[in-house]
Design goal:
With 77 residues, the chain is of the alpha+beta class. The chain is built from two helices and four strands. It has a four-stranded antiparallel β-sheet with strand order 2-3-1-4, with helices on one face.
């Protein structure tokens, strides 16, 4: 399954470093720094059972406040 990961960073967190670290997490294909309520958005491919572990790895990175997933709905809108 494909999911978008919405990541908030803490004050003073190093966004470029964290984007690189997120990209090193197995299953993550892209990561981009963005403006708005989230600081990074990543795209990941994993099975539904592995999604909580993937989020846990990202949430455990130094400087990450929270990470949540928005799975891509199957089919067309």
């Amino acid at each position: 399954m494909k999911a978008y990961l919405l990541i908030q960073l803490g004050p003073g967190a190093d966004g470029p470093r964290l984007a690189d670290e997120v990209l090193e997490v197995p299953g993550v294909g892209t990561a981009a720094r963005v403006d708005g309520p989230y600081d990074l958005i990543a795209e990941a491919e994993t099975d539904p059972v592995g999604l909580p572990a993937l989020l846990s790895k990202i949430a455990g990175l130094r400087g990450v406040l929270r990470a949540l997933a928005s799975p891509v709905a199957a089919g067309r809108a």
